[in-house]
């Protein structure tokens, strides 16, 4: 038995609602996002988690704290679980990005794995830091359940990497706000995806 990682995307923010790229911008949960986190907390209150981890950005950290509250445990913040650093794209919509950065936008949407965003990261760098962190967490908590709250792009990159996907196709993995994924992670990066993008706890929130 490996470590079961309950990997969660944070609840909604005002920039999610407006379809703006967030990246490392520290945007808080909106009211809907808080309700989504509370619904997930209700769903998971009967589980036994060895630990709670989250990106240190407040939308992820606050989601994790809401879910951890019934368990009486603190959340450990980790910068390595942050969203993709979108650099100069942060705060912009897709249409604004296409107008201001047409060439790099085309390269990113075709081949994000090695395309560096202006002032930001490549997807390869995101996958490396995210998977490395998940491996460390799994090694720290063998044969246990842990909850990890991160971000849409980071989660898709990590899951795609662990499933040996072509990460240039990572956008094919949908990841909704407050969605629950479960990965059982073993040694040598062997992983089983047990649940993906489950939002059944939201009931239309």
TrEMBL record:
Enzyme superclass (EC): hydrolase
UniProt xrefs under SUPFAM superfamilies: Phosphoglycerate mutase-like (SSF53254)
GO cellular component terms given for this protein: cytoplasm
Pfam families per record: His_Phos_1 (PF00300)
One MF annotation (Gene Ontology) recorded for this entry: alpha-ribazole phosphatase activity
CDD domains in the record: HP_PGM_like
SMART domains: PGAM
EC number: 3.1.3.73
Keyword field: Glycolysis, Isomerase
InterPro entries documented for this protein: His_Pase_superF_clade-1, His_PPase_superfam, PG/BPGM_mutase_AS, PGM_Phosphatase, Ribazole_CobC
Domain of life of the native organism: Bacteria
BP term (GO), one: cobalamin biosynthetic process
Active-site residues, as the UniProt record annotates them: 10, 83
Residues that, per the record, bind substrate: 9-16, 59
The protein, known as: Alpha-ribazole phosphatase
Organism, scientific name: Ammonifex thiophilus
């Amino acid at each position: 038995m490996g470590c079961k990682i309950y990997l969660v995307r944070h609840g909604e923010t005002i920039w999610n609602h407006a379809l703006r790229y967030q990246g490392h911008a520290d945007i808080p949960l909106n009211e809907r996002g808080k309700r989504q986190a509370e619904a997930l907390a209700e769903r998971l209150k009967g589980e036994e988690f060895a630990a709670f981890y989250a990106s240190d950005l407040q939308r992820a950290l606050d989601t994790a704290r809401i879910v951890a509250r019934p368990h009486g445990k603190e959340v450990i913040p980790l910068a390595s679980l942050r969203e993709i650093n979108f650099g100069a794209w942060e705060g912009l919509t897709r249409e604004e990005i296409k107008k201001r950065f047409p060439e790099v936008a085309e390269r990113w949407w075709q081949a994000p794995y090695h395309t560096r965003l202006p002032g930001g990261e490549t997807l390869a760098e995101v996958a490396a830091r995210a998977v490395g962190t998940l491996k460390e967490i799994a090694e720290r908590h063998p044969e246990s359940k842990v909850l990890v709250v991160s971000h849409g792009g980071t989660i898709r990159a990590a899951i795609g990497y662990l499933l040996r996907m072509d990460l240039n196709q990572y956008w094919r993995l949908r990841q909704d706000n407050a969605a629950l994924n479960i990965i059982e992670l073993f040694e040598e990066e062997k992983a089983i995806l047990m649940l993906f993008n489950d939002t059944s706890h939201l009931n239309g929130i």
